[in-house]
Automatic annotation (TrEMBL):
Residue stretches making up the FUZ/MON1/HPS1 third Longin domain: 359-462
Similarity comment text for this entry: Belongs to the MON1/SAND family.
Lipid bilayer topology: Peripheral membrane protein
Record bears the keyword Protein transport: yes
Name the record gives this protein: Vacuolar fusion protein MON1
């Protein structure tokens, strides 16, 4: 076990800046707003020149360290990405952020389209195609500040009674493989259930992109209860679109959201990029996605399939099935039970006090086989956002160390860090990863005992905390 003792806690977390630009130095996206954005535009050319110098030497520029600030670069030709951060997180963290930023852009303009566009015009202004999609990029960056499911490449499932989750999943199994690729039910920003083809797994990154699209402010505030949009799931197929049918089951802030992605394993046709702005309840591609705080159902179908050439035909089939599925959920009482659980926070959340472990303040547990995480509420002393950011950064340092993601000589099974405010430990085994925060007054033996107690509690509660044995079709 490696120790890092008495790391000072820096309460300052200045806003990170993110830049996206083409290999010709053309600006594509900047996270700053207003006058700040204008101030940074001259920076694009400097960054592009720096990257080009390294490329000419047959090398890649990964990062630049300047005092407490690091500039991290990611090359995904024909686009380049950069992040300026003074949070003190490992390089691998901001690199992951840039990778997700790239995937979100690919969900709007596919990799094949990008390649063709810049082959024809190297100085093309991509901002024209991304017009209206800036909100999706901004909401993703905001999520990444504190979302530990993103940091650990995992899904975060809603805590729910095992029997209720099973009944909901059974009601949502589609009758045909022809129209629907995935069925996802979400609530409170987490997955309730996910139904997929028997021989096809779902990459967590695609689900995060789907979640971010559904929960973007432009979707949340849309008047339409149902949307039908083309989008690319980059890990499934970076060169093609599927169509997503997104429907809110009810309107309260904490209610469930149903998202279905319709398609087939051969769905690969690239269609003209469509803005994700605007909302409509009519069956037209390009309508806006649903809100994060409302219940919705979404399905997606490939942009083109041999038997279903017309997207509106696919939409009609999916819409009819959705109506019958939600009628069944309502008739069986499952929908009402889910909405009640979502509107009663303590039914879907839990406190560290529930575990009854002295000195325990917070933890993150990842079930590696299911690629899912669970964690309690952020409570005292992490109620303030800045304290949460500090704790998340400590967790990220542990994660980076035990996985040797920043060039360390070897991976670690245990990593312990002690600050003036807490002790944190990362522990990895074959079935799980655990990141735990406790009082700094506890000795290491008590920290290890607490970690063992957490894993025993998780084992008892895993039926409620994780999505296991979800149905396939």
């Amino acid at each position: 076990m490696a120790d890092v003792q008495h790391v000072p806690g820096d309460p300052s977390h200045p806003r990170r800046q993110y830049f996206v630009f083409s290999d010709a130095g053309k600006p594509v996206y900047i996270s700053a707003d207003g006058p700040d954005a204008e101030r940074f535009t001259t920076t694009f050319g400097v960054m592009q020149a720096l990257i080009s110098v390294f490329i000419d030497d047959g090398d890649k520029l990964r990062c630049i360290n300047a005092g407490g600030t690091r500039i991290t670069f990611l090359q995904r030709a024909p686009l380049y990405y950069a992040c300026v951060s003074a949070w003190g997180e490992p390089e691998s963290v901001t690199r992951t952020h840039l990778d997700y930023l790239h995937l979100q852009i690919l969900s709007i303009v596919t990799a094949a389209q990008l390649r063709r566009i810049f082959e024809r015009r190297t100085n093309f202004d991509l901002r024209r195609l991304l017009n209206g999609a800036e909100g999706f990029l901004s909401s993703l960056l905001e999520r990444m500040e504190l979302d530990l499911a993103l940091s650990t490449s995992s899904l975060w499932c809603l805590r729910l009674d095992l029997g209720l989750r099973k009944r909901i999943a059974e009601a949502l199994i589609p009758p045909s493989k022809k129209e629907i690729l995935y069925v996802v039910l979400m609530a409170r920003g987490r997955v309730v259930t996910l139904i997929r083809p028997r021989k096809h797994s779902v990459h967590p990154a695609d689900i995060h992109i789907l979640l971010n699209t559904v929960y973007a402010p432009s979707i949340v505030n849309a008047p339409a209860a149902t949307s039908w949009i083309p989008m690319c799931l980059p890990k499934f197929n970076p060169s093609g679109f599927v169509n997503a049918y997104i429907s809110f089951l009810s309107r309260p802030d904490s209610a469930p959201v149903h998202v279905s992605v319709a398609g087939s394993d051969s769905a690969s046709q690239s269609i003209a990029p469509s803005s994700h702005s605007g909302s409509s309840s009519s069956p037209l591609p390009g309508s806006q996605p649903a809100s994060p705080s409302r219940a919705s159902f979404a399905e997606s179908a490939p942009a083109e399939q041999p038997a279903y050439d017309d997207p509106q035909v696919v939409l009609a089939c999916i819409s009819a099935w959705y109506e019958s599925a939600t009628d069944r959920l309502a008739a069986e009482g499952s929908l009402g039970s889910l909405i009640t659980a979502c509107t009663t926070e303590l039914r879907t959340e839990y406190s560290v006090a529930e575990l009854g472990i002295p000195g325990l303040r917070h933890f993150v547990y990842k079930a590696r086989a299911q690629v899912q995480v669970t964690m309690p509420l952020f409570e005292d002393p992490y109620e303030e956002v800045d304290e949460r950011k500090r704790l998340v950064t400590l967790y990220q340092k542990l994660h980076d160390a035990i996985h040797a993601r920043s060039g360390q000589g070897e991976t670690l099974k245990l990593q312990y860090i002690k600050t003036e405010k807490e002790s944190v430990m990362g522990w990895i085994t074959q079935p799980f990863e655990l990141y735990i925060a406790l009082s700094p007054l506890l000795p290491k033996t008590a920290v290890i005992n607490a970690a063992n107690s957490v894993t025993r509690w998780i084992k008892r509660e895993e039926g409620k905390l994780f999505l296991k044995d979800a149905p396939v079709f």
